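Students often ask what a holo structure prediction actually looks like on paper. The answer is less mysterious than it sounds. You provide the chain, you provide the ligand, and the output is a string of discrete structure tokens encoding the 3D arrangement of the protein together with coenzyme A.
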Amino acid sequence: MTEALIIVLHPSRWGEAKALRLQALENDPLAFATSYEEALEYADEVWRTRTKAAFEREGAIALYAEVDGTLVGMAGAGWSDRRKTRHVAEVYAVYVKPNHRGKGIGAALVQGLLDELKALPQIEKVKLSVTGSNEAAVALYRRLGFEAVGNARRALKIDGRYYDLHYMELWLR
Ligand SMILES: CC(C)(COP(=O)(O)OP(=O)(O)OC[C@H]1O[C@@H](n2cnc3c(N)ncnc32)[C@H](O)[C@@H]1OP(=O)(O)O)[C@@H](O)C(=O)NCCC(=O)NCCS
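The corresponding structure tokens follow.
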């Protein structure tokens, strides 16, 4: 069990969502395809729109972990309404602040997303990609039922070094 509250963030708190995401990208660059430098350039309107879309479940959901009123973790999922791919959702932007790790918060966030996705009748499968060397994240996803389905070699290039991506999937129904 985790001490954190798992919440859907009200759009008025978009600034906190921005700060947490930027911290994630800066602290753990190997874990995400978006670079910190790229995200720093987003206009505030982008953060506002994303937080509102996730609140209204317009093609995305985001869950946040809150401890004593402060955001300490997040996880997102998105899907499209394109006919051929609308049965597939993708989990992304999973992050827990370093001093709150190992307490079940990441698992609670991702399980919360899976529960939300199960309630959407069109979604049958959830996919994600994770840097192959990210053992904590791979173990987290495995524990929640995701299975490895393949690798993309040298999919990320960060400061001149290449990283493979590991693809994982979970069938919801
Ligand atoms: C991956 C991450 C989200 C895990 O969050 P967390 O809150 O520490 O995870 P939890 O405490 O909920 O752990 C759940 C399970 O994940 C696995 N796990 C988590 N941390 C682990 C670690 N350091 N080593 C091995 N397994 C780990 C375990 O299976 C654990 O279950 P258990 O406690 O029953 O053994 C966190 O380490 C993080 O934010 N990392 C940086 C960003 C990142 O890698 N995001 C994922 C991008 S795909």
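The domain at 5-171 is CATH 3.40.630.30 (Aminopeptidase).
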